[in-house]
Design brief:
The chain is an alpha/beta fold. The protein folds into two domains: 170 residues, Rossmann fold; 203 residues, Dehydroquinate synthase-like, alpha domain (Up-down Bundle), CATH 1.20.1090.10. It has 15 helices and eight strands. The strands form two sheets. A six-stranded parallel beta sheet has the order 1-8-5-4-2-3, with helices on both faces. The protein has a two-stranded antiparallel ribbon with strand order 6-7. A hairpin with a 4-residue loop joins strand 6 and strand 7. The two termini are 41 Å apart. The mean pLDDT is 96. The structure holds 5,6-dihydroxy-NADP and zinc ion. 5,6-dihydroxy-NADP binds next to helix 5, strand 6, helix 7 and helix 11.
Length: 389
């Protein structure tokens, strides 16, 4: 029986030029001191930085800056941000960038109220007691961090990449302007699209009672990514394609489609170990892993869900045998990821060998099998990694 609470309070401004006036008005609701956080400089190249600074200056907001947030953001950068928030008594954090920047600000926001290393939030040593409000301006469609409660941080000293979430980390306001993603490279567009697709797959493949309405929404979201990602790659300034990917990225993971599903995800924890050890792009890791995970868990017990996926998402002939539909669906997914998106199709091409697979699988299963659509033991995970070579 489905039962859940719907509570997705991020206010979204969608479309071009929404930051004009609206950005400063929204920020002022939280105070006058703004910490502007961004990454390695893409926002300067596209002119967004100047636009934001003009807007904030003309509203007389006091702006502090932290740049250089890394892809796969480091806990050391989060600590820096939390420190500035404390020292300068910041009222609101403005995150401008992709998932890495927004994720990092989530733990800065909580770190403002914690006397210690922000990494403690990721290892469960610190509790979320309070957090500064976050306003985000998204520049890459992928993670859904602009509208969700979670974030993922990397500790390069311990080679760990861990996530945590809390409702108080969800951005209060997000500006989603698809034109800000025109400059995203073909590679990052492909990785981001693979990530969106994976967020839906992680929820869609579920062994218990599913809600037909939500399954149908997810099938629509998956079809949206499959239709528009190749268009965005070949025509980077196609507004329709960028807009569809952007809104799909938010709704894939903001809690709506997953609200009645309580199970843990499968490919994400397996991928986070890859990113932790090899600093690879999250979406690329997921693209390589997902079809292998599917092949590993496909059986007569699970074939029904694959059949539904194949018929409803890839329009495969429903009169074929269930297993044939399932296998064809996985082939079609591979073709989308590796041909249409042109992503590398194995880990060997990324210079990754099996030397850490045992340790990675051990860490994932340290508290027992990885629960999910099909529970995975340490050996299952090693087999999946090996199939990716
Ligand atoms: O740093 P800058 O210069 O901004 O460049 C970035 C970065 O190099 C660039 N970029 C971003 N917007 C651009 C642009 N380049 C040109 N034009 C633009 N408009 O793209 C590169 C990648 O950025 P990043 O933020 O790392 O990518 P993404 O949005 O895919 O975020 C990935 C991170 O989010 C985590 C991932 O694990 C990874 O650490 N995730 C967060 C989730 C969440 N909050 O719920 C869930 C996800 O499953 C995921 O784990
Ligand atoms: Zn993801």
């Amino acid at each position: 029986m489905q039962s859940f609470i719907y509570d997705i309070p991020t206010k979204v401004y969608f479309g071009p030029n929404q930051i004009d006036n609206n950005l400063s008005n929204e920020l002022k609701k939280f105070g006058n001191k703004v910490l502007l956080v961004y990454g390695g400089g893409s926002i300067k190249k596209i002119g967004l930085y100047d636009k934001i600074i003009n807007e904030l200056n003309s509203a007389n907001l006091q702006v502090f800056e932290l740049s250089g947030i890394e892809p796969n953001p480091r806990h050391t950068s989060v600590n820096k941000g939390a420190q500035i928030c404390k020292q300068e008594d910041i009222d609101v954090i403005l995150a401008v960038g992709g998932g890495s920047v927004i994720d990092a600000t989530k733990f800065m926001a909580a770190g403002r109220y914690y006397n210690g290393d922000t990494w403690d939030f990721l290892i469960g040593k610190a509790q979320f007691t309070n957090a500064l409000p976050i306003v985000s301006i998204l520049t890459l469609s992928a993670t859904g961090s602009e509208m969700d409660t979670g974030g993922v941080i990397t500790n390069t000293e311990t080679k760990e990449k861990l996530g945590n979430s809390h409702p108080m980390l969800r951005p209060k306001v997000s500006f989603l302007d698809p034109t800000n993603t025109y400059s995203v490279s073909k590679y990052q567009t492909a990785c981001g699209s693979a990530d969106i697709l994976s967020h839906i797959i992680e929820v869609y493949f579920y062994s218990y009672d599913a809600m037909y309405m939500l399954d149908t929404v997810m099938e629509g979201l998956m079809k949206t990514v499959i239709k528009y990602a190749p268009i965005a790659i070949s025509q980077p300034d196609n507004y329709e394609a960028r807009a569809n990917l952007m809104w799909a990225s938010s709704w894939a993971i903001n809690g709506f489609v997953g609200q009645d599903k309580k199970h843990a995800w499968s490919c994400h924890p397996i991928e986070h170990e890859l990113s932790a050890f090899y600093d690879i792009t999250h979406g690329l890791g997921l693209a390589i892993l997902t079809p292998r995970w599917m092949k590993h868990v496909l059986s007569s017990n699970t074939v029904d869900k694959f059949y539904q996926f194949g018929v409803n998402v890839f329009d495969i002939d429903k009169n074929l045998s269930k297993m044939k539909v399932a296998e064809t669906a996985i082939e079609k997914l591979e073709s989308f990821l590796f041909k249409d998106l042109n992503l590398s199709d194995n880990l060997t091409k990324l210079n990754i060998d099996d030397s850490h697979f045992e340790t990675m699988a051990e860490r994932i299963t340290k508290d027992g099998p990885l629960k999910g659509f099909v529970d995975l033991s340490k050996n299952d995970i090693i087999e999946i990694y090996n199939a990716c070579l």
